[in-house]
Amino acid sequence: MNIFVCIKQVPDAKDVRLDPETNTLAREGVQSIINPYDRHALEEAVRLKEKYSGTVTVISMGPPQAEVILREAVSCGADQGILISDRAFAGADTLATTYTIAMAIKKSGTPDLVLCGKQAIDGDTAQVGPGLAERLNMPYVTCVRKINDFDNDTLLLERMMDDGYDELEVQLPALLTVIKEINTPRLPSLKGKMKAKKIEITTLSAEDICADSTQLGLTGSPTWVVNVFSPEFTGERSMITGSVDEQVAQLTEKLTELI
Amino acid sequence: MDYFLTEEQQMIKDLAAQIADELIIPHRAELDETEEYPTEILDAVAQADLFGIYIPEEYGGFGAGCFEIVLALEQFGRGCTGIATAFAASALGVYPILISGSPELKNKYLPDVATGKKRAAFALTEANAGSDASGIQTTAVLDGDEWVLNGTKQWITNAGEAQIYSVIAMTNKKKGPRGATMFVVEDTDPGFSYGPKEKKLGIRASSTRELIFKDCRIPKDRIIGRQGAGFITVMKTLDQSRPGIAILGVGLGQAALDESVTYAKQRVQFGKPIISFQAIQHMLADMAIQVEAARALVYGAAKHIDAHPKDMSKVSSMCKVFATDMAMKVTVDAVQVLAGYGYMREYPVEKMMRDAKILQIYEGTNQIQRNVIGQALNKEYS
Ligand SMILES: Cc1cc2nc3c(=O)[nH]c(=O)nc-3n(C[C@H](O)[C@H](O)[C@@H](O)COP(=O)(O)OP(=O)(O)OC[C@H]3O[C@@H](n4cnc5c(N)ncnc54)[C@H](O)[C@@H]3O)c2cc1C
Ligand SMILES: Cc1cc2nc3c(=O)[nH]c(=O)nc-3n(C[C@H](O)[C@H](O)[C@H](O)COP(=O)(O)OP(=O)(O)OC[C@H]3O[C@@H](n4cnc5c(N)ncnc54)[C@H](O)[C@@H]3O)c2cc1C
Q1: Distance from residue B279's CA to the centre of ligand 2 (Å)
Q2: In this structure, what is the dihedral angle of CA atoms A213, A218, A221, A225, given to the nearest 10 degrees?
Q3: Domains in chain B and their CATH numbers?
Q4: Which of A130, A145, A138 has the alpha carbon at shortest distance from A113?
Q5: What domain range includes position A98?
Q6: Does the C-beta of A61 come closer than 6 Å to ligand 1?
Q7: Which residue among A188, A190, A197 sits closest to B62, beta carbon to beta carbon?
Q8: Is A119 in the pocket of ligand 1 (CB under 6 A)?
Q9: Whose CA is closest to B68, among B12, B6, B113?
Q10: Residue in A187, A192, A194 nearest the CB of B19
Q11: How distant is the Cα of B42 from the closest Cα of chain A, in angstroms?
Q12: Distance of CA B340 to the CA centre of its chain
């Protein structure tokens, strides 16, 4: 099984702050990590590879520093890493991101399976997985919590729903986005760390992926983030105390005031 | 202090530290309380390839030495002496095969040990043979193509959890210590069973039980080394393994120091953090000095051993005594720094103090180590 796993470098959630001046994420001095959901996607890919054989390619769009997370993924079982990096990609919304990643995947092979995290903990849109599937012309299932079997090019899986879960069959090639319940990601291995140290990470530029420049980065992004802000907590709270009768009396009074 | 590790050594240390921080420390109190064997954690250690550090490359390991295993054990020991003991005892069980085993035995067992699929144990001690190992009464008699073992081993770490057991038994009582031979016994061998789990003061996540051999039959080729060479293998094994126990003391001492300093900075009495009292500062300073001195000695001893000198017993014993006596003292002091809170199970230092004690006892008591050192000095100066 030829598996591609999309991983995004995100600021560590423990450190996330908004710059009050610019209302953008304050990235200065903030530790960067693999998007936590993507760790689960990677782990699932490595398990599928161990069970059914194949290769696991991790791919990320981001600045040159994102190479670190690709190496980390290799230390945890991925076979190779691809970094899609070019100034032209800056400012991409989900539309431009999915275009770019899709072009890079098409350039790099023919995956049987593409795995994504459910969502990125910074952008939080959960759109990249489905968007990418559309662009790759693949069926997709979001919020996968378990892969039960693989037989005859078909995956049997469970999708988390609000009120339970669905059991689904999906024919490969396909794209899945996964949730944390799917597995417990492993730590790196010593062999993996040594491999990660030496491995050549392929870097793809806009030119390498034969991209149409009007669909890239800010230019290719119809979404404009007008404002990002931390909500202010203004709600006033008061406690009603005393005996039940007293509390009822107080509450009635307050409610009457509101009418 | 910077010990100028190579890139590879740093990787081993970092990986073991990550396991300690993410998997061991969050679970140590619970495993101590429930006395459960840390199977899941050891499986994660296996997946991280760390069971293969000291196994030669031809058998699927990394072919690294005593120093590298010491680096890993230090971090595990910083996390939990009990869990680290379970890991270390497996290495102890494998060393006899590595040191004296036939190529066939090595081929059969080492690859599975390197991947962590199988774990090992080392069985020397008996009810009447502790420090005086020559008192062992377990026997092995050749019957056709099989050895038949009878007897009971006592306080064997990893008993019931390991698949591979290195066992010493008398094959010729008349020859005394030269009549003892080592064998590999597998968990599934007929006539082999375990006693109940011992209830212990510390290292409660590790399993300690009897091995019971009742007409236990094993194939002839399970012999480790020559017949009658059992004690030579035991001594070589212990020379190799003692720095591993010593470094558990260093890891534990470091953990106790870390807890103590952190606490002393936070705890306010008489309007000041207690770290501002010189009495506390000096205690912390002494702890730090001892931990670092022990670390330097153990690292040095491990590197000495990796150079395969002819006689390594003295150095090996010296680092074991120094680092484990240090761990006992430093953990007692840690409880003193935390005082009442330190005495409570809510804080980790009381467990550290309970765990420290075993380090002065197993793999040869510290009195026996001093005997070894004394005898070596006597010989050296003759
Ligand atoms: C605070 C903030 C707000 C934003 N708001 C918007 C917005 O409203 N609309 C919009 O279009 N964009 C927005 N963006 C930009 C957006 O984060 C990225 O441009 C976007 O393409 C990725 O979307 P996401 O982070 O929501 O990823 P999601 O769609 O949540 O990510 C799902 C999965 O897709 C994969 N993936 C996502 N990004 C990458 C990548 N770069 N490389 C490899 N795999 C990846 C991962 O597997 C990930 O788990 C915002 C960014 C920030 C920081
Ligand atoms: C938790 C635990 C795990 C263990 N795991 C293993 C294992 O995996 N495999 C294994 O084979 N064994 C194991 N042991 C056994 C351990 O190695 C022995 O307990 C140890 O060697 C000491 O033997 P003893 O307890 O019988 O003490 P004894 O030999 O009875 O000693 C009692 C006291 O006398 C002192 N003493 C004895 N002889 C002398 C002397 N000549 N000079 C000076 N002082 C002396 C000792 O230092 C000690 O203080 C384990 C023990 C414990 C408690």
Answers
A1: 36
A2: 180
A3: 7-119 (1.10.540.10), 121-228 (2.40.110.10), 231-380 (1.20.140.10)
A4: A138
A5: 2-258
A6: yes
A7: A190
A8: yes
A9: B12
A10: A187
A11: 13
A12: 31
Beta strands in chain B (DSSP E): 120-123, 139-143, 146-157, 164-170, 180-186, 192-194, 208-219, 223-224, 268-269, 272-273
Ligand 2 in reach of B125 Cβ (< 6 A): yes
Instruction: Take residue A33 and report the two structure tokens written for it.
Output: 């990590």
Q: Give residue for tokens 């007897």.
A: B151
* Cβ–Cβ below 8 Å for A189 and B49: yes
Cα B29 to chain center, whole Å? 20
Q: Kindly give the confidence (pLDDT) of every residue in chain B, 382 residues in length, as a single tens digit, with 9 standing for 90 and above.
A: 999 999 999 999 999 999 999 999 999 999 999 999 999 999 999 999 999 999 999 999 999 999 999 999 999 999 999 999 999 999 999 999 999 999 999 999 999 999 999 999 999 999 999 999 999 999 999 999 999 999 999 999 999 999 999 999 999 999 999 999 999 999 999 999 999 999 999 999 999 999 999 999 999 999 999 999 999 999 999 999 999 999 999 999 999 999 999 999 999 999 999 999 999 999 999 999 999 999 999 999 999 999 999 889 999 999 999 999 999 999 999 999 999 999 999 999 999 999 999 999 999 999 999 999 999 999 999 9
Are the CB atoms for B288 and B257 separated by under 8 Å? yes
Domain total of chain A: 1
pLDDT in tens, B168-210: 999 999 999 999 999 999 999 999 999 999 999 999 999 999 9
Please indicate whether residue B122, judged by its CB atom, sits closer than 6 Å to ligand 2.
Answer: yes
Question: Which pLDDT tens digit goes with each residue over A60-73?
Answer: 999 999 999 999 99
CB pairs under 8 A between A and B: 35
Residue owning the nearest CA to atom 5 of ligand 1: A123
Q: How far is B59 from chain A (nearest CA, A)?
A: 15
CA B312–ligand 1 middle distance (angstroms): 59
The radius of gyration of chain A's CA atoms, rounded to the nearest angstrom, is: 22
The C-alpha atoms of residue B366 and residue B257 are separated, in whole angstroms, by 23
Burial of B229 (0-12, 13-18, 19+ CB in 10 A): middle
Give the tens place of pLDDT for each residue, B245-280.
Answer: 999 999 999 999 999 999 999 999 999 999 999 999
Task: Give rounded-to-5 percent helix, strand, coil for chain B.
Answer: 60, 15, 25
Chain A residue with minimum CA distance to B60: A191
Look up tokens 């669909």; give the residue.
A215
What is the distance in angstroms between the Cα of B48 and the nearest Cα belonging to chain A? 4
* pLDDT greater than 70 at residue A218: yes
ipTM: 0.86
